[in-house]
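Lab notebook, bench 4. Still working through the backlog of constructs that have no structural model yet. Next entry is a single chain of 597 residues. Request: give me the structure tokens for it.
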Amino acid sequence: MQALEHFPSLTAMFFARAMERGERPFLWAKRGDTWQPISWMETARRVASLAKALRALGIAPGDRVMLVSENRPEFCIADLAIMATGAITVPTYTTNTTRDHEHIIANSGARAVFFSTAKIAGALLPAVVRSRIEFAISIEPLKSMQNSAVEICDWATLLAEHPGDPAICAAELTATREDVACLIYTSGTGGAPRGVMQHHGAILCNVEGCVDIIAGDFGWDEEVFLSFLPISHAYEHSGGQFLPIGLGGQIYYAESLEKLAANIAETRPTIMVVVPRLFELLRTRVTKAVEKQGKLPAFMLEQTLRLGAKRAANGGTLPFWEKPLEAILNRTIAPKIQARFGGRMKALVSGGAPLSPEVGSFFQSLGLTLLQGYGQTEAGPVVSCNRPSVGLRMETVGPPLKNVEVRIAEDGEILVRGELVMKGYWNNPAETARTIQDGWLHTGDIGEFDERGRLMITDRKKDLIVNDKGDNVAPAKLEGMLTLQPEIGQVMVYGDRRPHIVALIVPDPEWLKEWAAAQGKEPDLAALRDDPTLHVAIRAAVDRVNADLSVIEKVRRFALADEPFTIDNEMLTPKQSIRRHIIRARYQARLDALYGG
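Model written out:
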């Protein structure tokens, strides 16, 4: 297949792959109880026809066209057709409110919009009729195809009336790697969503970097993806749509979260792009399913996880006396769990949020390769990703992708440079200038490299504690280390413009129950918060952590909270970020008292 670095645009890559793959299956969707494919060439014909229709309707290079649809073949076809005209796709979430749609339409200056269903039209069309949108295209037929204020076109009718030739469409492509391919809106800090201008080269750079990992570490074969995350998000847009195109692979569109496990078993994907929350759900389901089978399977799972953790701690090796047990487990329980994931999964790729190392170790122990990556919408979005050839370490997000430069600024901020960096924020030159300086994208994340060049994310820059001496302390690092102690369930550290770090701690509920029983006391946190013997026990845990911290990071004093930390009545797990302003407001007097104020 044609080399990725030679493609001038995403649409050129698609048409080249379509010519190479011909009538082989490409896009799959469930129709009734059966998965139905659309071939590469049929997809190309529909893209060419739709692009021809858009030109006939007046869409020109540089125009913005909004796309509001759930994951389905038509999303991919519409996206490619918009880009084939030289126009810019504006993908938006199906969950957006009318107000959200109004902002994006007005900010992007979109001339047209695709939408998939009557349900989506309910929130979208009220925004459309109050805008300068000239026409809307309905993917599914509407009962009424007329609207008093905007022309509504039917998808099937447009395709039928404008038959297109893929070869001619490919020959007429004008976009270059420098041209903007899409505007992906991301929430602004404390402001309205901002449109990130991703150019063709940014996404192509991402695709080439990811293909380099797959080809180099797993082998590039007939790849099958199961698309589940919203394609309107940059992560799925690049990783779940354009990466499969670059690989010449197949894309199955999952039916729903409820049917995801069944869809995985049916489609047997080789690669899945998911978020940490889904891994947590899958781990819970797997554990419960094994436990229901009885004590022996539960024991075997426990031993599999124990050996996996031991292997990870020993740099990928096990003592020789553990290997016979591992061999038994690899022939019994591990294949059964791997079968739940289709039996041919090369890699589960995690991104979008930090992954708990414990969750990563769980899947790794079962023989499922889990790769954690890091990125931002402003960077295509993938900046780095773990790969087996460098060594899988769950606390890292791997080395930078091919052709991507990453350096750490003096204040610890991660800076990124390369073709993957966005053109800027749409109609927001001030924010663009603040974010991109001398070609370097300022991510706002704090990190460092380990000894093998793998990037580690330690905090968000805006969350840094700056003490009264101007020293920077990353609270997430301290909180992560503290919650690894069995005595500590939740913690929030504090110390901005203060002489040292203090902490507000919630003891682990199971540990507290056992400790209280041994002391002949009730495990009532509110009643025990000032108990001196409990403080001694928690102090021992804090001291263990302090032994591995620098002088400015050490937790000097702490207080115990009255109850677990919750936001909107939902308890925060140790790995969830704590909304410090809410917790701090609730316990400000207690925190000030730790400084004698």
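Notes after review: The chain has a mean pLDDT of 88. The chain has three domains: 4-199, 271-343+345-461, 464-593. Flag for follow-up if needed.
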